UniProtKB/TrEMBL annotation:
Its main location: membrane. It holds the Pfam family ExbD. Keywords: Cell membrane, Membrane, Protein transport, Transmembrane, Transmembrane helix, Transport. Transmembrane segments: none annotated. It is a single-pass membrane protein; Single-pass type II membrane protein. Signal peptide: none annotated. Belongs to the ExbD/TolR family. It is found in: Cell membrane. This is Biopolymer transporter ExbD.
Length: 193
């Protein structure tokens, strides 16, 4: 439907009429601008399909880094939203901020704690408390999600766990790839129904 200015609008066949058409349009330019809405509907359809394919009912809890290969697990639970400590072969990152280098931690074996990690986790705890100060029913659960590479030595993971405990995070969740549903599928033969 074209966009037109309000007022009298005769049918298109009367506009070409010598008798009625001249009286209505007298010196005015036609302001009818016809808009083709088919491309807009096509674009909106593609956008809706794209958004539906990208939708996740659980939400994105973990951002998978390229340099981290997670271990496999057959039994597990879905993790909840909490600060993410990502341990790769080269660095430790908390919610997107680098806090330590793994080679430096290997050289410095005197203490168990990682000061940069503790400080960042305490900042996350303060942020959580500030966001939930108006909600007294919401209690601090002290959860943190640890996303460690398969090849990271346990002594590094142990130091990360200790630093999390010192910062007040006592509920540690380890991220792993879920093989529970994938393990049942290969038992069938390709043609078996």
């Amino acid at each position: 439907m074209p966009i037109v200015t309000p007022g009298k609008r005769p049918a298109k066949r009367f506009l070409k009429s010598k008798i009625i058409g001249g009286k209505i349009s007298r010196g005015r330019k036609a302001t009818n601008a016809e808009i083709n809405v088919i491309p807009m509907v096509d674009m909106m359809t593609m956008l809706v399909i794209f958004l539906l394919q990208q939708y996740s009912s659980t939400g994105e809890v973990l951002y998978m880094q390229k340099d981290i290969k997670l271990p496999d697990a057959h039994h597990g639970q879905t993790i909840e939203v909490a600060p993410v400590v990502a341990i790769s072969g080269s660095e430790i990152v908390v919610t997107g901020v680098k806090v330590a280098d793994v080679p430096d931690l290997d050289r410095d074996s005197g203490y168990l704690n990682i000061p940069g990690l503790e400080e960042r986790l305490r900042d996350e705890k303060k942020r959580w408390e500030y966001l939930h100060q108006q909600d007294p029913e919401k209690k601090w659960d002290g959860q943190v999600n640890i996303q460690a590479d398969k090849g990271v030595p346990f002594r590094i993971v142990k130091r990360v766990m200790y630093s999390c405990g010192v910062a007040g995070y006592f509920s540690l969740n380890f991220a792993a790839l879920d093989l529970g549903s994938a393990a049942a599928a290969p038992d069938k033969a390709p043609g078996a129904g």
